[in-house]
Amino acid sequence: MNRWLIAALLPLLVPGALFGATATYRITYRGGDKLHVDAQLPAGDGKLLIRQGGGIAHLPNEWATFVRDLRVTGGNGAAVSTTALGKEGWTLGANGAIAASYDVDLAYAVGKWPPGNEQSGRLLANALYTVTKPLFVYTSNVTDAKVAFEVPADWKVAAPWLASASRQFTAASLDALTDNSLVVGRFGATEVRIGAFDVTVATPDQDAPPARLVAALQQMGSEATAMFPGTPAGRYVMTFFRADDEDGESFESSAALTSPYPFDDASMVVTGNTVVHELMHHWIGGMLAPPPEQHDSIAWFTEGFTEYYANLMVARSGAVPRDLMHQKLANVAAGYLYFMNSSLFHGITLADAVQKKGAYRMGIYNGGWAIALSLDTMLRSESGGKRSLADVMRLLFDRYGRARTPISEAELRAAASEVAGRDLAPWFEKYIHTREDLPLAATLLQLGLELRGQPYAADVYLINVAKPTPAQSALRAQFFGTKGSM
Ligand SMILES: [Zn+2]
Q: Residue 178: inside a domain, yes or no?
């Protein structure tokens, strides 16, 4: 039998078992505490499934709790019976492709959700933020989906999928469909484009995001485009809303942040920086990362370098008032110096710190930040400003990130050595694998910042040198730009 014939016959021999299929959903919502879904689903294994887990351990039936008035019909239009299977979903009374129609009770988006509303939803005056887990029931063969929204004409839909038409989207995988978050309604939002990668920052409980966020995102957009050229097309949605606690949750191609403080210009030093930090993770820790099973193995890189670039981008954009940015850098430096000087962390290197991400947080975040700052300064000063850490990132992205080839510290050392034009392995060995601390004061002085204080007390200050030399001014401008943040 020729292979074309085999290909043609296979679906008949094993219906749906090998060939996944596209599900189609239409979501109808005009406000209020429920929305309606009509779904066309391919034949599966006799079950109707719903995503499990994700901050819902307190409800035995998990997300299935919120699916109401479920009606299923078969290909011939006849009703198909459903039997509840708890959190897994339902058993279907017939096989074959089906149409499912149901309401989703948005009770999970009203009031306080025990693990935090960023993990469920929030129904606001003019908009709904929701995770996608309760919205989409599916059969075992669903591999991708088309999603259309029927909403009032003046509403926006911020969804983390590529749009095929107005309010119509294509989710490329089941995870992209069911492990994400979105916002519908009337709400403030700002957009940034990084190559073909589009990001929406939505603020559903504010009329508009802070004006300075736009500047920070534009800065990030141009720098990320230069550092990570050829980033594949995609969409990302970042949502911010007020809640009692500072919290955050990441999904397949979206994230949500909450804070008790309003997201205004002063909050750019906290929330604005966090927004940029989370977006940077698309590349550092996302495309450029160790194998998934060793996720935290180079956390000083994935977290520390991410924070370093978030700081640089918000500073360069001029989005954070100068005095607040100054305080932030002093705080981050203080954390690293305290980690290295306090007996609390005796014997724990930056590489060891990943063993207890909570307790040794400063070794990871502040430590990785100090490594990034030191490396960047070293590369810039040794090359007379011709090379920088951005060249290392570009090289790593070129070689590994774009193809999503996992990396380890060895690849980082090699790329940094290549850009430096000398072997930096001993440098990495010393500052990441022993308790020797980086000469941070000398590094900061190269930028015209004098570090004074008591590191063992986490009490340090960055003081502008009275008369910076041309070299100090030049290096400082390379770091923080000329828009006046530092
Ligand atoms: Zn992070």
A: no
